[in-house]
Amino acid sequence: MKNKILRIFSLILFLPSFICFSQINKNQLEVEREVYVIDSLSNSVIDSVSLIMRDSINVRVLKFDKKIITQNILRNRNTHFEIKYYFKDNKLFFIKIEEQHPQLIDLKRYSEYYIFDDKIYSKNYYQNMRICLPISVEDMMNGMGYNIQLTEKFMQKYVFNLYRKIKKLNPKHY
């Protein structure tokens, strides 16, 4: 009897969280499909501009039909990263950051932000690696060669600050 009550109670507790998690996962799959379609169809640059952020970050902005790509270079740190902003119905819905490893051209680190009402509602982080690449504990602690100053908190602020600056350039275009 106690096991039956415990099972029912567990089901009542976990069912709403399972439904909520599956809904988020479904939304993320829809976003990824939309991003794929935009990447497949958006090939012609509509506009481009160069900016300087924080005195040491050079930014090149490329505007496409439903996305904006920014190529960011931190002059003092030999760091290159690309930010892609994706739009649906003229609203920002997804941001993808791709940071190039400073020494190994085939390695990149990625951050993905799922956006709703101009706020991040979900995040995803990953990086590609070589299977044969030996990794020491020291390398793991020091960010594997990537710029450790590009923290999650910094990047979340930076992508929105950059987006606001881009919109100010020409609100009709961006």
In short:
The chain is of the alpha+beta class and 174 residues long. It contains 3 helices and 7 strands.
The major pleated sheet works out as:
7 strands, antiparallel
Number of strands: 7
Q: Which stretches are poorly predicted, pLDDT < 50 over at least 5 residues?
A: 18-22
Strand ordering within the main sheet: 1-2-3-4-5-6-7
Q: List the total number of helices.
A: 3
Task: Tell me about this structure.
- With 174 residues, the protein is α+β, with helices and mostly antiparallel strands.
- 36% of the residues lie in helices and 34% in strands.
- The protein contains three helices and seven strands, in the order αβββββββαα.
- Strands 1-2-3-4-5-6-7 form a seven-stranded antiparallel beta sheet, sandwiched between helices.
- A hairpin with a 3-residue loop joins β1 (47-53) and β2 (57-63).
Key descriptive features of the protein:
alpha+beta; seven-stranded antiparallel β-sheet; single chain
Write the layout of secondary structure elements.
Elements: H1 2-41, E1 47-53, E2 57-63, E3 67-74, E4 79-88, E5 91-100, E6 108-116, E7 119-127, H2 137-141, H3 152-169
